[in-house]
């Protein structure tokens, strides 16, 4: 975990701070894989943060289970786990009242050349969003990642539209106005988005993630 993360952010983990005991030895549980191997074996999206077992993989291997994968980056989630079974925090965008799946098969990218580590099966628990001071205290890399991502990512259309209309109208847009507006991608800059996050006009959601199981078979297959 990163040392300069404010304690107030980490405090969200207090109720969930018990690590899951991974049954494999360290060399096995810390084994790194390329994402293309996960994609080859299980299908799904090769670039998305969240994806699930692809239909091709299910057709080829009817006995495998449908998995929901979470492929996490520490540039976006500086307080996410690095060690299998360890709890952490996930930063997200959107207004989900609760997580849509009982658990996610979580991987973390360890190196910039796309090596990933399987961490376990994780439950996502909604917490309070980041405050203004907490967002400002994030490492600059995380602030830039979020501002740039919100400016262009498909999953950020709702938030991006809201922020763009806020600038256009000089007030909070209504839900109807946001729904009717076209996607302003390309018309709002990362700097404008970062300003709204720094001023508290928009916020980053936070989810505590805790390991509830560890699939030894999956890890050994990889």
* Beta-strand segment tally: 7
Radius of gyration: 18 Å
Number of domains: 2
Approximately how much helix is present in the residues?
25-40%
Q: Main sheet, how many strands, which sense, barrel?
A: 7 strands, mixed
What is the molecular shape? globular
Low-confidence stretches: none
- Provide mean pLDDT, rounded: 87
Per DSSP, the total helix count is: 10
State the secondary-structure class.
alpha+beta
Question: End-to-end span in angstroms?
Answer: 25 Å
Order of helices and strands: HHEHEHEEEEHHHHHEH
Beta-strand percent range: 15-25%
Describe the structure.
The protein is of the alpha+beta class. The protein has helices at 7-10, 26-29, 35-42, 55-60, 132-137, 140-152, 157-169, 175-180, 190-199, 216-221, and strands at 32-34, 50-52, 68-72, 88-92, 104-109, 115-127, 205-213. The chain has two domains: 7-129 and 205-221, no CATH class; 132-199, no CATH class. The protein has ten helices and seven strands. Helix 6 (140-152) packs across helix 9 (190-199). The two termini are 25 Å apart.
Question: What layout of secondary structure does this protein have?
Answer:
Blueprint: H1 7-10, H2 26-29, E1 32-34, H3 35-42, E2 50-52, H4 55-60, E3 68-72, E4 88-92, E5 104-109, E6 115-127, H5 132-137, H6 140-152, H7 157-169, H8 175-180, H9 190-199, E7 205-213, H10 216-221
Parallel strand pairs: 3-5
Antiparallel strand pairs: 1-6, 2-3, 4-7, 5-6, 6-7
Domain DUF6697: 33-222
InterPro entries: DUF6697
Pfam family, one: DUF6697
């Amino acid at each position: 975990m990163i040392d300069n993360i404010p304690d107030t952010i980490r405090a969200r983990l207090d109720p969930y701070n018990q690590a899951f005991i991974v049954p494999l030895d360290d060399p096995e549980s810390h084994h790194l894989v390329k994402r293309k191997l996960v994609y080859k074996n299980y299908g799904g999206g090769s670039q998305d943060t969240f994806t699930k077992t692809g239909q091709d993989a299910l057709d080829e291997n009817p006995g495998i289970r449908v998995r929901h994968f979470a492929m996490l980056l520490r540039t976006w989630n500086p307080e996410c786990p690095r060690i299998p079974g360890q709890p952490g925090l996930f930063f997200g965008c959107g207004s989900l009242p609760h997580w849509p799946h009982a658990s996610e098969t979580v991987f973390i990218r360890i190196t910039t050349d796309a090596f990933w580590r399987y961490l376990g099966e994780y439950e996502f628990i909604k917490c309070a969003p980041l405050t203004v001071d907490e967002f400002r205290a994030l490492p600059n890399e995380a602030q830039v990642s979020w501002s740039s991502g919100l400016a262009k990512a498909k999953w950020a259309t709702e938030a991006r539209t809201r922020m763009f209309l806020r600038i256009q109208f000089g007030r909070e847009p209504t839900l109807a106005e946001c729904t009717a507006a076209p996607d302003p991608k390309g018309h709002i800059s990362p700097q404008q988005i970062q300003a709204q996050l720094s001023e508290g006009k928009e916020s980053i959601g936070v989810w505590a993630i805790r390991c509830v199981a560890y699939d030894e078979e999956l890890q050994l297959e990889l």
